[in-house]
């Protein structure tokens, strides 16, 4: 039964994946080299992650997710390449299964529009090392492709064949790969409907919810410490930069305010204004407790260390995908993991926009609006 039971993810029509992936492709239609280089780089990731997964086995289950992610990224670039060469990726995969290396079987599937599907499996698999090397060679062959050449069809089909071999050799579900990649690319690049974004305290009393609107006053005194006020009451502890070379970290609570307004999540902010969800002890402990606060503080400090190297994201409209993926790993297991990466990007860029103004003026007022998922800066009166 092991060979029959899949990952539990429903079947995906590749033509649907192709259309949805196309909507997240920000490269121009005539850009070929960045796609080729991206594909080659992702294949390297597949090879590295696959070897680690096989070597460590169940000892490090996280490697499996990494392998699925690398296969998904590879599929995205391969789909983008095929699209630019007017050669559909499902056409390449279908052609690959006709080379005599595959056996077929009829399977009942979960598609209401078609109860049967044909299952292809590699008849004889080489060793994992050989399979991965073949995938690498096929990717290298693609680097010589140009739109002016007419021989790319065989190279695309050869790569598709090696990709299918690698999927089967490592033992992961293609449906799982596709679903994971769709979630990833839509969360990072897709348009987000604010009304459909997750919120985490709508069923709780007002005194356990992050306020729909809030104003936090930030003042720096002569002692160099920053102080926070909410509704005229001092909250939190006075802060310094706690570093040899001052960098403005004493104002880092701005980032928690951005998390609260944009993500509707911030255990630190809840603690500051005493709006933890104590009516549900499980939520209070798991989502608003000390560990969640440490996670948010650690994440904030880590992003800050990266932001310092990039002039605190001055002039940036996007963040690196690697940074966003690391954030996703930071918050895994907490409610905020439901927020798409695009919303995380928005929260961070808004937060740093306000932070730069607070730092430059040694204080200010941060206005948060949960309904609009926005924060803005207002100068202190008389400043």
Write the layout of secondary structure elements.
Blueprint: H1 14-22, H2 33-56, H3 62-84, H4 89-96, E1 102-108, E2 116-122, H5 128-142, H6 152-170, H7 174-189, E3 213-220, E4 226-230, E5 233-239, H8 253-263, H9 267-273, H10 281-286, H11 290-308, H12 321-330, H13 341-361, E6 363-369, E7 374-378
Antiparallel strand pairs: 1-2, 3-4, 3-6, 4-5, 6-7
Helix pairs in contact: 2-3, 2-5, 3-7, 4-6, 5-6, 7-13, 8-13
Q: For the terminal residues, how far apart are their CA atoms?
A: 72 Å
Main β sheet profile? 5 strands, antiparallel
Total domain count: 2
Structure class = alpha+beta
Residue-averaged pLDDT? 89
| Shape verdict | elongated
**What portion of residues belong to β-strands?**
5-15%
Helix-residue proportion: 40-55%
Order of helices and strands: HHHHEEHHHEEEHHHHHHEE
Number of strands: 7
Strand order of the largest sheet: 5-4-3-6-7
Number of helices: 13
**Quaternary status:** single chain
| Low-pLDDT residue intervals, each spanning 5 or more residues | 1-6
Radius of gyration: 25 Å
What does this 3D model show about the protein?
There is one protein chain. The chain is of the alpha+beta class. It has two domains: 14-191, no CATH class; 195-378, no CATH class. 49% of the residues lie in helices and 12% in strands. It has helices spanning 14-22, 33-56, 62-84, 89-96, 128-142, 152-170, 174-189, 253-263, 267-273, 281-286, 290-308, 321-330, 341-361, and strands at 102-108, 116-122, 213-220, 226-230, 233-239, 363-369, 374-378. The strands form two sheets. The protein has a five-stranded antiparallel beta sheet with strand order 5-4-3-6-7, covered by helices on one side. Strands 1-2 form a two-stranded antiparallel sheet. Strand 6 (363-369) and strand 7 (374-378) form a beta hairpin. The longest helix has 24 residues, at 33-56. The N and C termini lie far apart (72 Å). Mean pLDDT is 89; it is low at 1-6.
């Amino acid at each position: 039964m092991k060979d029959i039971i899949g990952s539990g993810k429903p079947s995906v029509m590749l033509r649907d994946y192709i259309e949805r992936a196309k909507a997240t492709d920000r490269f121009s239609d005539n850009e070929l080299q960045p796609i080729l280089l991206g594909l080659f780089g992702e294949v390297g990731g597949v090879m590295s992650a696959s070897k680690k997964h096989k070597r460590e086995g169940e000892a490090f289950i996280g490697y499996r997710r990494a392998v699925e992610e690398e296969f998904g990224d590879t599929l995205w670039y391969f789909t983008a390449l095929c699209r630019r060469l007017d050669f559909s990726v499902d056409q390449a995969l279908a052609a690959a299964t006709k080379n005599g290396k595959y056996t077929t079987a009829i399977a009942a599937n979960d598609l209401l529009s078609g109860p049967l599907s044909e299952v292809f499996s590699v008849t004889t698999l080489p060793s994992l090392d050989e399979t991965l090397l073949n995938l690498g060679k096929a990717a290298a062959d693609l680097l010589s492709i140009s739109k002016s050449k007419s021989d790319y069809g065989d190279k695309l089909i050869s790569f598709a064949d090696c990709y299918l071999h690698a999927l089967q050799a490592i033992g992961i579900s293609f449906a799982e790969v596709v679903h994971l990649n769709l979630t990833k690319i839509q969360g990072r690049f897709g348009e987000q409907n604010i009304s459909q974004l997750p919120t985490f305290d709508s069923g709780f009393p007002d005194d356990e919810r992050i306020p729909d609107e809030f104003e936090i006053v930030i003042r720096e005194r002569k002692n160099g410490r920053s102080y926070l006020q909410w509704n005229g009451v001092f909250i939190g502890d006075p802060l310094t930069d706690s570093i040899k070379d001052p960098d403005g970290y004493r104002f880092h609570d701005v980032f928690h305010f951005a998390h609260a307004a944009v993500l509707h999540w911030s255990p630190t902010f809840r603690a500051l204004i005493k709006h933890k969800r104590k009516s549900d002890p499980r939520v209070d402990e798991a989502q608003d407790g000390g560990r969640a606060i440490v996670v948010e503080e650690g994440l904030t400090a880590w992003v800050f260390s990266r932001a310092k190297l990039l002039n605190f994201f001055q002039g940036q409209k996007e963040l690196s995908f690697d940074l966003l993926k690391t954030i996703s790993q930071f918050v895994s297991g907490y409610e905020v993991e439901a927020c798409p990466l695009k919303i995380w990007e928005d929260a961070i860029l808004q937060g740093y926009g306000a932070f730069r103004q607070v730092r430059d003026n040694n204080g200010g007022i941060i206005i948060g609006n949960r309904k609009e998922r926005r924060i803005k800066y207002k100068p202190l009166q008389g400043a």
